[in-house]
């Protein structure tokens, strides 16, 4: 599909801006194909596959020819706007090997919707989602021998969009680069599947109303590292991000977060996560968990709620024995059980099943998602086949 705009440069006629078009892709093969590494050597985001995808965009011509080529360095001018004013956004999604020898991407349409929202927010070009899904599929096909096998192992896909206008003036970028790299991965945390301790952080804020906390901008991540280091010095693996005078629970580390409670009077159980009010990342794992639990947990027993809730509520309900479980939810770690939360000098203990690193609901949710991701169960159109092996 072509978009027509009046030509500014010549003052006559009309010019067409090229849209992102997967059918135009050119492929240059690496001279030396690498061999898959054993699963126990896969450290999250440290090994990359043989090829990458790049597509340039200019204001004058629109999207250029997509190129799949050997993985390698980018060359950019030091004045490029990505380095100075944070014109950068990214996505994270995964591809899995299924028992019937296919490679599938998990809900790539959701990531593409979010990526386009991020791009629009920082004046970078948007694109046809379906075309980038096709291009990612072609990239994965190229390196399909490097997609790991086994539950807990997958290919992490990192689409990224940067502004590449040269010069130090602050304005709308007239050049951009879209690139995709892929990394064979195992468990996100070095410790493997282990429950984590969080420090509730109220002295720093991850996101705020009217801000960009719901967009996947690199600029949202760098400022969160220092509070994380400070939490680590006190023995906590991640921060639990609070917001406002009420100290609402928002996210954990780089993930969405869920809590499960049981009302001691009525006996009703509740799974709760913060509402999408612009301060919360619109997580694909978050959305998948809400859909699956709304469909599969017994409504006679459970309420599944997106609502505001505070650290005070968690602390009080833990004291009354009403706190059942808590877990983080994101693409990288998928479901990450929580065992304690440091708050006001004490730890709020979060129950785990005795002898296990998880609780029953956390375990059930992780299993439901894994079964769909690894192709043991077909669920709507959540798995998109990209290659046959
Ligand atoms: C995720 O949980 O998928 C993330 O966003 C983590 C990523 C920044 C490595």
Overview features:
6-stranded mixed beta barrel, 21 strands, binds 2-OXO-4-methylpentanoic acid, alpha+beta, 7 helices, 389 residues, disordered N terminus, single chain
Which radius of gyration do the C-alpha atoms yield?
Answer: 22 Å
Shape: globular
What value does the average pLDDT take? 94
Largest sheet: 10 strands, mixed
Q: Which H/E pattern describes the elements?
A: EEEEEEHEEEHHEEEHEEEEHEHEEEHE
Low confidence ranges: 1-11
Number of helices: 7
DSSP strand (E) fraction? 25-35%
How would you classify the helix and strand content by structural class? alpha+beta
Model description:
The protein has 389 residues and is of the alpha+beta class. The protein has helices at residues 81-85, 108-121, 129-142, 225-233, 284-296, 311-319, 360-373, and strands at residues 3-6, 14-17, 26-27, 51-58, 62-63, 67-70, 88-90, 93-97, 102-106, 154-163, 175-185, 196-201, 238-243, 248-252, 255-262, 269-273, 302-306, 323-330, 334-343, 346-349, 383-388. The strands form three sheets. Strands 3, 4, 5, 6, 7, 8, 9, 10, 11 and 21 form a ten-stranded mixed sheet that branches. The chain has a six-stranded mixed barrel with strand order 12-13-14-15-18-19, surrounded by four helices. A hairpin with a 4-residue loop joins β13 (238-243) and β14 (248-252). α2 (108-121) packs across α3 (129-142). It is globular, with a radius of gyration of 22 Å. Residues 1-11 have low confidence and may be disordered. Bound molecules: 2-OXO-4-methylpentanoic acid. It catalyses: L-leucine + 2-oxoglutarate = 4-methyl-2-oxopentanoate + L-glutamate; L-valine + 2-oxoglutarate = 3-methyl-2-oxobutanoate + L-glutamate; L-isoleucine + 2-oxoglutarate = (S)-3-methyl-2-oxopentanoate + L-glutamate. InterPro entries: Aminotrans_IV, Aminotrans_IV_CS, Aminotransferase-like, B_amino_transII, BCAT-like_C, BCAT-like_N, BCAT_family. Belongs to the class-IV pyridoxal-phosphate-dependent aminotransferase family.
């Amino acid at each position: 599909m072509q978009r027509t705009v009046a030509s500014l440069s010549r003052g006559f006629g009309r010019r067409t801006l090229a849209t992102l078009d997967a059918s135009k892709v050119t492929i240059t093969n690496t001279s030396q194909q690498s061999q898959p590494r054993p699963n126990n050597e896969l450290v999250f985001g440290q090994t990359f596959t043989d090829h990458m995808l790049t597509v340039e965009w200019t204001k004058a011509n629109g999207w250029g020819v997509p190129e799949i080529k050997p993985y390698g360095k980018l060359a950019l001018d030091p004045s490029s706007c990505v380095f100075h004013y944070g014109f950068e956004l990214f996505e994270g999604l995964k591809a899995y090997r299924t028992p019937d020898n296919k490679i599938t991407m998990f809900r790539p349409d959701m990531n593409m919707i979010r990526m386009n929202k991020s791009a629009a927010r920082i004046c970078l070009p948007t694109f046809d989602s379906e075309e980038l899904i096709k291009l990612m599929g072609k990239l994965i096909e190229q390196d399909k021998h490097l997609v790991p096998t086994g539950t807990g192992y997958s290919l992490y896909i990192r689409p990224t969009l940067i502004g590449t206008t040269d010069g130090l003036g602050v304005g709308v970028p007239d050049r951009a680069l879209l690139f995709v790299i892929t990394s064979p991965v195992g468990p996100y945390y070095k410790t493997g599947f282990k429950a984590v301790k969080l420090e509730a952080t109220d002295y720093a804020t991850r996101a705020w109303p009217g801000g960009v906390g719901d967009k996947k901008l690199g600029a949202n991540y760098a400022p969160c590292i220092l509070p994380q280091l400070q939490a680590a010095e006190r023995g906590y693996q991640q921060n639990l991000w609070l917001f406002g005078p009420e100290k609402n629970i928002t996210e954990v580390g780089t993930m969405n977060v869920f809590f499960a409670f049981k009302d001691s009077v009525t006996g009703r159980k509740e799974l709760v996560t913060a509402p999408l009010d612009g301060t919360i990342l619109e997580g694909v794992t978050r959305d998948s968990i809400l859909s699956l639990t709304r469909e599969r947990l017994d409504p006679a027993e459970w309420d599944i709620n997106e609502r505001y809730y505070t650290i005070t509520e968690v602390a009080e309900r833990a004291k009354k024995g009403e706190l059942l479980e808590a877990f983080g939810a994101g693409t990288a770690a998928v479901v990450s059980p929580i065992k304690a939360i440091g708050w006001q000098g004490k730890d709020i203990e979060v129950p785990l099943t005795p002898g296990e690193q998880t609780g029953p609901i956390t375990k059930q949710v992780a299993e439901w998602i894994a079964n769909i991701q690894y192709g043991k169960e077909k669920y709507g159109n959540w798995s998109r086949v990209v290659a046959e092996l």
